[in-house]
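Expect chain and fold; thus:
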Amino acid sequence: MEQQSIDSLRERHGALVEEHPKLRIRERAQRLGVTEAELVAAGCGVASRQLGGTAQALFRDLGTLGSVMALSRNDHAVHERHGQYQSIEANGPVGIVLGPDIDLRMFFGGWKHFYAVTENGRDSIQFFDKAGEAVHKIYRTDQTDATAWSAYIERHAAQEIAPVRVEGFQRIDEADAPADDGALRAHWRALKDTHDFFAMLRQFKVSRLGALRAVGPDLAQRVDKRAVETVLEHSAATGLSIMCFVANRGIVQIHTGAVKKLLRTGPWFNVLDETFNLHLNTEAVASSWVVNKPTVDGWVTSLELYGEDGGMIVQFFGERKPGQPELPEWRHLLESLCPQALAA
């Protein structure tokens, strides 16, 4: 972006903030018809410093920071988890963070722009994809090692400033329905691992929601949109340990454990626990599904929420690890949501 364009953007941004001072930066970018990365790069409402190197190199060094807050989101759900980046593997196109607090799966192919940002007194490290959308943000907290944070920024500061040039993503070749419902169903029933599900969708060139619609109610059935509140309220009341997944194009962020404090604020249903926050816009939920997959450890069920565009907003499982069967209490809870019986 040329200086003249930057100056114009700053001027338009200032006028927008004056008229709507409570808008968050994501909302301001949408109103102005630009990307969040462009606002950050132009210093619109923030102080920013570009970071250099690869996303993988930046991630491998996050363990030095101590306790922070990790945030990943999509249009309708925000997932925040406090803790340390531990057990970091980030050497190729796919990375993983597998600590007891922060649990991530990173898909680095589209990550491109990285910044240290200060906004309203809050310091963060922000990762954006090539389309200028935020993939992941890391916030400094009172428990963060302040010296290590400053050293990290100095160590990774870009030597040369690269302008933000927005690029699109190639559209995935997938249909809203499979060419052969029976073949998809047979393949689904032969699954051995939940991680094989994505490969199955690619093989049949069908969208996730298209597969759910086609496969039959014993494997996937639509449930009441209030099911998510039932699940979270049950976890809060009983201590049932759940897994909550929120994803965007470049990352999946996972919380494992029971939830405690629930609060509705307008369209947002919130989990407000000490180390985990979830902000879910339930008005954006177009459909909710209970999904049932066979594995070598038995059947595994999930609650999945989708938006009008067919994209997944959030996904819930009962706590489990490979090699362990699903929690019976979780299975019974999801079965109670279903008008028809699940395969077992």
